[in-house]
Amino acid sequence: MTFEHMLFDSSGTLSRKEFWLAHVILFPMEMTCAALFRVQDNYLCTLNPTTAMGQLYYASLGLLTLVFCFMWYCVVIKRLRAKGRGHLSFFAYAVPILATLSVLAPHFPFECSVSLADRALYLSALVPFWLIYFIDLGIWTKSKAQPA
Prior knowledge:
By secondary structure, this protein is mainly alpha-helical. The protein has six helices and no strands.
């Protein structure tokens, strides 16, 4: 499976190995992009969203968030399909994904100096959701019926 198909195509299925490989690719990319947008005392983060530069900053942040949401969707929906489950199950896994993206991205204009300790506290509250996510999608395989 190619990188593009794994992260940007929602058709097909993902094996457990491909699921973990996708996360090995996604997590560092997401953390790097979040760090670029959320540097402590970042000048860009304090830009007024009514100015052209501020609009460019927040538009690029929104676009990046949409791209990451789409990549997560493609990975999760293919893994759910491999486990014999449908699109409705995706919404249970959207909670940790969207909450994590929300914690990592600036929430409001002019408030981008959230300390690392505060971010760690917010992310620690999401640990149970991520455990369920990884245990269900990444560790257990679909049980196959035994022939009688």
